[in-house]
C-alpha cells in the first residue's frame, strides 16, 4: 500500500511519518518559532493589521446596525406612539424620530439639517425624543427637556417646534445653556410652560430605556421608518451627526416602501 511521504522545504522526500493528525499539537519550540515568524511578518507588513482592524470594525458596525433595526421594529409602538413625545405632522406616512440633548454639540450641528429636512418634506412625521444625557453634568439639560415636555402638553406641536428651534438657535452648548435661554424659548413658544415634574421625568425615563433598547449610545440618533409596513429593508437607525442628504435618503427609502403598500 502506498503512503505518501512528507516533503521538506528543500523539496527532498522525508522518511519520517508525514503529517500531524487533527488532534496533534506543535511542540513549545515549534510554537515559539511560528509565533516569531508571524510577528516578524506583521511588523514588516503593518498594513495587514490596519486592514484586519478595519474589517473587524466594519463587521461590528454592521452587526450593531442590524440589531438596532430589529430593535426599532420591535419598539415601533413606543417610538411612534408615546403621548409625551412631541409629534409634528402626525398624519405623515414616514416618521423621523430624533433622540437629542439641547447641550450636545453634535445635535446643535445637526439641527439645521433637521430643519431643512422638515421644510423639504412637509408630510414627514417628526417625533422628538428628549434625552438629556448630559443632565448629570449640566443640570439645565434636564430642565430644558422637562420644560419641552410642558410646552408640548400646553401648546402642541407648533409651540414645541418653536421652543426646540429657539434653544438650538442660541448656540449655547456644552454647559453654556442658561435659565434665561430656556425662559426666552418658552416665550417664543407662546406658552407659559415650566419644567414638568413627575410626568416629564417618567417620559424622559421611557426615552432613556428606549434608546438603550435600540443600542443607541449617544446623541443625536435617528430612526427613520414608514408608519405602516416597516421592515428590516426600509428602516434606518442612524447614530451621530448626519447631513440633510443622508436623512433624505433614509426618508426616500422608507417612503418608497410606504407607497408600495409596505
UniProtKB/TrEMBL annotation:
One of its GO terms (molecular function) is oxidoreductase activity. PROSITE patterns: THIOREDOXIN_2. Residues 58-256 form the Thioredoxin domain. Residues 1-25 are annotated as: Disordered. InterPro entries: DSBA-like_thioredoxin_dom (IPR001853), ScsC_N (IPR041205), Thioredoxin-like_sf (IPR036249), Thioredoxin_domain (IPR013766). CDD domains: DsbA_Com1_like. Pfam families: DSBA (PF01323), ScsC_N (PF18312). SUPFAM superfamilies: Thioredoxin-like (SSF52833). This is DSBA oxidoreductase.
